[in-house]
Amino acid sequence: MQYLVTPESTAEIAADCLVAPVWKEGRLSEDASALDKAVSGALSHIAASGDYLWNVGDKHLLHGPSGCAAARILLAGAGDPNEFGAMEAAKFLSGSVQSALAGNMPHVHFALSDLAVDGRAPDWLAARLAQEAEVASYRYETTKANTKREAVLDRLTVPALGENPGQALRRGAAIGKGMNRARQLGNLPGNICTPEFLAEHARELADDFAAVSVEVLDEAQMKKLQMDCLLSVAAGSVEEARLIVLRYGGAADDRKPVVLVGKGITFDTGGISLKPGLTMDEMKFDMCGAASVLGTVAAAAELQLPINLIGMVAAAENMPGGKATKPGDIVTTMSGKTVEILNTDAEGRLVLCDALTYAERFDPACVIDIATLTGAAVATFGHHANVVLGNDQELIDSLLQCGRNSLDRAWQLPLWDDYQKQLDSNFADMANIGGKRAGTITAACFLSRYTEKFTWAHLDIAGSAWHSEAASKGATGRPVPLLMEYLLHLTDKD
Ligand code: BES
Ligand code: MN
Ligand code: ZN
Fold first, then answer.
1. Which ligand is nearest to the CA of 265?
2. What is the pTM of this model?
3. Which residue's alpha carbon is nearest to atom 22 within ligand 1?
4. Residue 334 lies in a domain
5. Which one is catalytic: 120, 275, 337, 404?
6. Would you list the DSSP string of 392-455?
7. Index of the ligand 1 atom closest to the CA of residue 372
8. Most buried residue among 78, 277, 293, 418 by CB atoms closer than 10 A?
9. Which ligand 1 atom lies nearest to the CA of residue 442?
10. Residue 180 C-alpha to ligand 2 middle, in angstroms?
11. Which of the listed residues 101, 124, 158 is the one where a domain comes to its end?
């Protein structure tokens, strides 16, 4: 898809469609008013008709307007200008892009020059438009025989919004593409998207970007590093575990890297502590943390961000089997601490703890792990919030702010010492589960024991990473927007 900033006046743009915002009660935006004059009042006529309330989402399509170069004009409701915040703007943009896609209009121009979004710089709108356009254009078709490709959107133009609309468009598009990469990996079934498939994907990613290199550890290499805890998760599966390390070097070598660690359970049956059958298929999404790491590394590399970034993926398949880990088994982690595995379904923390210990060697500026870790996060927050916990309030505050900025919001839970004793074990240094209560917190407590040497935050994305409802079932690409906002904010500080 091409994104362009055009200096032409709206009426002169020979697009397949011009999107013209209309405020409530049919008041035309400035751009729309100028266009209205060129088309002899055709827009104000419709806007004033009373047919629509012009709420965000209301639309009217005008074919073959005379007086302008475009083939169509889409009047798009923007609601109350005093309530036009980032959420409303995002909804307005995605709705308009979807209409353009549905109507087979490859080149769309957005007449948005006077559209002020409460609390946002003008070029935010350009960035968000490109992000929404990418996200709306994604279709899952890999495993469908008949994928008659519907209409495509291939050219999107905007007027000169803000200081650097070109850069804003590039940033938004990179984030959208990063989300789509994460969505695609998430949506692929467990029999295709295996740990080795993720490793191969990472190798291809490293081939695509000169500043990215990759290292993949196999089971023998992990065994040497004494990652018995990670390996215990893969013990019941014929698919070998992989530890994937992507390095993106965008800054001087002596700059400490941000390290992202993704949970990459390519299918989570629960192991011997087998999950119930209903909706078990959704456990193919249990590698969405890993997918968000791959999407974020790709987006950061595409934008050539002046930072150092390491993306790690702890990939394994959690299966029952003759060699599978059993409840009560005790394993030794790479750190030397022992774990009594009371429930083989609490496997995410078992792969993450060894990956986190491995992360120490990178002398990180901070480590953020991203994991579909607990059903309790879904029970508490539904599908809306990322959950954040960690050992550094400044990092957590920063992630919360980045969540608000990117509309990929997070909410903090407490990591109080009081919860730690729920992990006590009579037979090992700790148990891998903390009982019925506060499951999201005790999972983070477990991880906190492997993150004492660095600044760390944990994102539990069990709720936010995918939609379960039949019609919209699929991976969301979250929290790529939040992570990218965080990385972009690091570059702005320089
Ligand atoms: N991958 C699941 C978490 C999950 C469950 C995400 C449902 C989304 C929806 C994780 O591996 C898991 O099974 N967690 C257990 C932990 C429990 C055994 C302590 C859970 O949350 O039930
Ligand atoms: Mn599990
Ligand atoms: Zn899991």
1. 3
2. 0.98
3. 375
4. yes
5. 275
6. -HHHHHHHHHHHHHHT--EEE----GGGGGGG--SSSSEES---SS-HHHHHHHHHHTT-TTS-
7. 6
8. 293
9. 19
10. 25
11. 158
pLDDT one digit per residue (tens) for the chain, 494 residues: 999 999 999 999 999 999 999 999 999 999 999 999 999 999 999 999 999 999 999 999 999 999 999 999 999 999 999 999 999 999 999 999 999 999 989 999 999 988 999 999 989 999 999 999 999 999 999 999 988 776 789 999 999 988 899 999 999 999 999 999 999 999 999 999 999 999 999 999 999 999 999 999 999 999 999 999 999 999 999 999 999 999 999 999 999 999 999 999 999 999 999 999 999 999 999 999 999 999 999 999 999 999 999 999 999 999 999 999 999 999 999 999 999 999 999 999 999 999 999 999 999 999 999 999 999 999 999 999 999 999 999 999 999 999 999 999 999 999 999 999 999 999 999 999 999 999 999 999 999 999 999 999 999 999 999 999 989 999 999 999 999 999 999 998 65
How far, in Å, CA of 474 to CA of 97, rounded?
A: 20
**272 and 336, same domain (yes or no):** yes
* CATH number of the domain that residue 235 is part of: 3.40.630.10
At 83, which CATH number?
3.40.220.10
Which atom of ligand 1 lies nearest, measured to the CA of 347? Answer: 11
Give yes or no for a contact between 155 and 109, defined as CB atoms under 8 angstroms apart: no
Whether 217 and 130 share a structural domain:
no
Could you tell me the residue range of the domain that residue 476 belongs to? 178-493
Cβ-based burial of 163 (10 A; exposed 0-12, middle 13-18, buried ≥19): exposed
Domain-located, residue 167: no
If we measure between CA atoms, which residue out of 201, 209, 170 comes closest to residue 4? Answer: 170
Whether 240 is in a domain gets the answer: yes
**Can 242 be counted among the known catalytic residues?**
no
Count of structural domains within the chain: 2
Instruction: Kindly state whether residues 83 and 199 are assigned to the same domain.
Output: no
Q: How far, in Å, CA of 477 to CA of 488, rounded?
A: 18
Rounded to the nearest angstrom, the distance between the alpha carbon of 268 and the centre of ligand 2 is: 6
**Are 197 and 85 contained in the same domain?**
no
**Ligand 1 — pocket residues by CB below 6 A?**
268, 286, 343, 345-348, 372-376, 378, 433, 439, 462
186 plus 48 within the same structural domain: no
Question: Is 275 one of the catalytic residues?
Answer: yes
Claim to verify: residue 184 and residue 73 sit in the same structural domain: no
Choose the catalytic residue: 171, 181, 242, 349.
349
Picking from 409, 415, 483, the residue whose alpha carbon sits closest to that of residue 87 is 409
Ligand nearest to the CA of 376: 1
232 and 265 belong to one structural domain: yes
φ, ψ for residue 281 (rounded to 5)?
-55, -30
